[in-house]
Structures are given as C-alpha cells and as structure tokens.
Amino acid sequence: MENLYWQRYPLWRDVPPEQWYDWHWQYRHIVSTMEDLVQVLPMTPEAIEGAKSTMSDYKFASTPYYLTLIDAKNPECPIRLQTIPDFKEVSRAAMDMEDPLGEDSHMPVPGLVHRYPDRVLFLVTTSCAMYCRFCTRRRIVLNKEHRTERELENVFNYLREHKEVRDIIISGGDALFIGDKFLETCLEGFRSIPHIEIIRIATRIPIVCPMRVDEKLVTMLRKYAPLYLMTHFNHPYELTDEAKKACAMFVDHGIPMMNQTVLLRKVNSDPVILRALFHELLKNRVKPYYLYQCDLSEGIEHFRTPVQKGIEIIESLRGHTSGLAVPEFVIDAPGGGGKVPVMPQYLISESDKKVVVRNYRGFISVYEQPRETDCECSTTEEINKLYPAPPSEGPDLLMHSKRVGIEPSK
Ligand code: SF4
C-alpha cells in the first residue's frame, strides 16, 4: 500500500497519486495565501500576524510537496524557516541592499548579467515554484515575468557579438519553472553560438518539486551537453526519496549535478548538519560545490551567521572527510565583486626555501621548496593559441605582465 502522506492534510485529502506526482498539478496548486497555509500548518495568532506583516513586501509561495516536509511540531523546523514568512523580515540592517550582488548594474540587455569576462547569467524568469525566505533576488522574485521571444533574441544577438563568453548560467527565479518549449528555445539558441561551451541550469526544482524532473525533460536537456545542473539543497531533510529520484534522473542522463548551499542561521549553521548533507549529496552523485555566506539582501539578517561560522564548518570538514565532500566557502562580495573564497589558515609560514603548514589535526610539517623554480612549459604558447585565455585581471595581471600596479577605477 503506497504511503499517501499528503492525504493527512485536509487540503489534499482527496488528491490521488497520479495528481500529486504530476508537476502540472503541483504548479497549479502552489500555496500562496494564509488561508490555505493554515489548513496545512497550524500557526499561532502571533505567527500568522508576523507572516502577514511581511507578505505585502515579500510574497509567500510553496508547492504542496515542499510544505509537507515541514515538521509542524518544531517551530524552528529547517524547512519551515526557509518557507514561512516571519516578522523579522520587516527589519533592516545597516548594510542591507536591494540588489547586493550589483546584478542590475551589470545588465547590458534585459535579463543578462555580464560581470565576468567569460561568463554570463541569464535570468529567464522571475518566478519560482517556492519562494525561499532568504532569497538574494527577492527584489524581483515572484514578479511573475518570463522573458519574451524578443528579449531572448536580444540576448542571443549580444552573445553572438561577445566572443569572450564561453559559459552561460540560465537562472531566475527558477530556470525549470518555465515550460519545456521555451527552455528548449533558449538552449537551442545558446548551443547554436559556437563560442558558448558550457551551459548551466540553476534550479531548486529537485528540492521543491522533484516531480517536475521527468523523462521528457531530461531527454531534452541531454541533447544540449555539456550541460550542468546547479541545484540548491540546504538541509538533509530535503533529500527525500522523491528528490533522490530526481537527482538520479539527471545524472543517469549524463547531466552532472553540483550543489550550492547557503549557510543559514538555525537552518544548517552546524558542521553536524552540513557534513550529513554533503555526504548524502555525494551518495546521490551530487557534488557539494559552494557553501555561500548569506548575502546582504534586505530583511534577511536573521538568516546570516558570523563569517567565522563558515570557516569553523570548513575546519570541521577538511581532512575529516574526503575532499569531494568539501565545498568551497565563499562570500559573494557585495556590490558585484564576485565570489571570494574564505577558508581556515593552513599555511603557517613561508620562505623561498620552505613553507610550514598544518593539517586538520594540528600536525605541523615543513615542505622544502625545490632548488629549481623556473616553471615555464614548452607547450604554453601552443595551448594559448588553441584555447585563448580571457584577458587577465587583478594580481594575475601583475604576475604575468610588466604592469607595476592597479589603480582602482573612479
Ligand atoms: S528558488 Fe532560487 S530564485 Fe527562487 S526564491 Fe528560492 S533562492 Fe530565490
């Protein structure tokens, strides 16, 4: 007898499995009002008032499926904290920003963020199947706008002219919240541009609506390889049987999966939780890729941890588990500075003769530098002709040119 767990909820008492596991049904029945929410999740009058106080600025939405993961008995349930609006969202910290990553100011054509020379970010929609309370793009998410054919054509034209771009991330909103047809139009267009080598799709669908991942979708996606699926598990409880099945569908169709976790206070701000998450992801063939320090978006200070918490978590992972299970901890530098890696200090001292390092157990050892230090390779020029590198910037530019300094631009 199948476990019809959703039928415990009055709202979905009569929903048969063929509807529950149909992503069209899930999308059509996204819960977005307090009236429906309280039928699923018992809430105190204070919690209801708190939720209402923020919903005029930042809406609420969740798939029925994701709501069933909430433990109603735990007011600090990690799924609940990510889903249910809270009065804390109305407060502002001194450095809160509407657009902390400076995306809007790096948008040469609507929807396309071009910040790094060789990579672009395409925001194909502002809609999602579930609205995460900690979202960096809360300024635009749930505006319910999809890019039009004309806007897409402008994006293609821009990319055809910018031959330095080799990598595109299709994001949003949620890139898999759009229909297969428009998604395929995007993919066909990007694949037809010869210098675009890599396509990435950023989505939280495997977590919030795993039934969206069906044979039709993965068969279509595999035609556009090399294509990577960037997803966003934040807690082991999100790795349900349904979510695991969705991950397996992608990977079995040759689509590698990488995971980007946001470090969230009270949700996953503990090495025990993140170690379990990263191990479980690996078992499901999903590589833990980044651990993000939570951004300075407006009204989400209560989700932010001190930066040291992330460093402490990496300290608890590195060496204590396989390197495959250790993501890179980064701060996405406010104002559009890009990802800055932050990690514990393992290099204790250095000279041109020796470096002194410590390992995860505090074992201190010395590494002797080689006597010959010339590192030039015979094939560098040849390879550079075959695979031209993008223009150098920052310290790399100083290392490999005759420039004597970098002046900050005015
Ligand atoms: S799925 Fe992504 S874009 Fe959508 S609300 Fe969540 S974090 Fe924001």
Notable traits:
globular; three-stranded antiparallel β-sheet; TIM Barrel; nine-stranded mixed β-sheet
In order across it, which strands form the biggest sheet? 1-2-3-4-5-6-7-8-9
Q: Determine Rg (CA atoms, Å).
A: 23 Å
Sequence of secondary-structure elements: HHHHHHEEHEHEHHEHEHEHEEEEEHH
What kind of sheet is the major sheet? 9 strands, mixed
Poorly predicted sequence stretches spanning 5 or more consecutive residues: none
Q: What's the β-strand tally?
A: 12
What ligands can be seen in this structure? iron/sulfur cluster
User: What CATH architecture would you give?
Assistant: Alpha-Beta Barrel
Distance between the termini: 68 Å
Total domain count:
1
| Approximate strand percentage | 15-25%
On the 0-100 scale, what is the average pLDDT?
Answer: 94
Instruction: Please identify the structural class as seen in this structure.
Output: alpha/beta
CATH homologous superfamily label: Aldolase class I
Any idea of the CATH topology?
TIM Barrel
Provide a descriptive summary of the structure in words.
With 410 residues, this protein is an alpha/beta fold. The chain has a single domain (1-342), classed as Aldolase class I (TIM Barrel, Alpha-Beta Barrel), CATH 3.20.20.70. Helices cover 30% and strands 16% of the residues. It is built from 15 helices and twelve strands. It has a nine-stranded mixed beta sheet. Helix 13 links the parallel strand 7 and strand 8. The N and C termini lie far apart (68 Å). The model has no long low-confidence stretch (mean pLDDT 94). The structure holds iron/sulfur cluster. Iron/sulfur cluster binds at residues 128, 131-132, 135, 137, 141, 172-174, 204.
